[in-house]
Amino acid sequence: MFSCNKIERQNNISKSKTTPKTETVSKDNTDLKSIEDISRPNKSEILNPKYDANLIFGIWTNDVNGPHADFEITKKYFFVVDYDGNGEMTYLINNDSLKVFYNDFISVGIITKATKDSLSINWDNNGISNYVKWTN
């Protein structure tokens, strides 16, 4: 949870108070205040990885001719490229499972392949997405 200062005016006297502010993120790549936030871990974690983490870390795209990559995975976050809002999401890798904690939903992928230049993930049981390292 983040906080910001809010200035209130009462009887022409300014006083500052801290109010909680939360970010919400939707599956449509934008922030929506109407969707309730979920509990998210404070940091990413890797437990018993089936694949070497160094093979998973990197900037990935499923369209080499596209204008940008799709996401980046680092030790600290899963970064959604071209995200309208803060694209840094915490994640959990446990064996071959990659769980990404967006603000208002969790996406679960099963990593089916990881090499130095390719990554395959079955996101939310919707079929395998094949990615290659972004080289632009």
What is shown here, in short?
The chain has 136 residues and is mainly β. The chain contains one helix and eleven strands. The chain has a single domain, classed as Lipocalin (Beta Barrel), CATH 2.40.128.
Give structural notes.
With 136 residues, the chain is mainly β. The protein has a single domain (37-133), classed as Lipocalin. 3% of the residues lie in helices and 47% in strands. The protein contains one helix and eleven strands; from the N terminus they run βββαββββββββ. An eight-stranded antiparallel beta barrel has the order 4-5-6-7-8-9-10-11. Strands 1-2 form a two-stranded antiparallel ribbon. The radius of gyration is 18 Å and the shape is globular. Mean pLDDT is 79; it is low at 1-26.
